[in-house]
Design brief:
Blueprint: H1 3-14, H2 18-35, H3 38-46, H4 51-57, H5 70-99, H6 104-122, H7 124-132, H8 135-140
Helix pairs in contact: 1-2, 1-6, 2-4, 2-5, 2-6, 3-7, 6-7
Length: 144
């Protein structure tokens, strides 16, 4: 199973269009890429072809296009600077998910489906190990 299979399934089960789903999946993968530590994250991404590229496409730590962003962007930058990259990635990722126009129920359904698909692709133990290293992401996705 590759990342496009995951995007297709999440899109179908969460009732989202492809472009929005790709952004949600890429954003969540980007948060995991920045926050999950060690070899478990690299092993996880190795088992899902294309996941790393999608995470980089929607990199939550990249400067916003156009340089602007106003108050929220300033706040994210300040929090990221104070809390370090790990917390900054989560703050930026959650802001990106909310900015995608989805409500909390849609984000949670997409996140739940994404985790189910990741477990099928990378195995439940490895998926839970990676997610376990980012517990606040799990709670924001309604997973625990």
């Amino acid at each position: 199973m590759n990342v496009q299979d995951i995007v297709n399934t999440v899109s179908q089960k969460a009732g989202l269009d492809q472009a929005t789903t790709e952004k949600v999946v890429g954003t969540i993968f980007s948060v995991l890429e920045h926050e999950a530590e060690g070899t478990s994250a690299s092993s996880f991404f190795a088992k899902i072809p294309g996941a790393d590229a999608l995470a980089q496409k929607y990199d939550v730590m990249a400067a916003p296009a156009g340089g602007g962003g106003g108050f929220l962007s300033s706040l994210q930058g300040a929090l990221g600077g104070v809390l370090g990259e790990k917390a900054g990635a989560l703050v930026n990722g959650l802001a990106a998910l909310k900015a995608s126009g989805l409500d909390l129920a849609q984000i949670q359904k997409a996140g739940e489906t994404l985790v189910q698909q990741a477990e099928a692709a990378a195995g439940p133990d490895l998926t839970n190990q990676v997610l376990g290293s980012v517990p606040s992401l799990k709670s924001h996705l309604g997973l625990g």
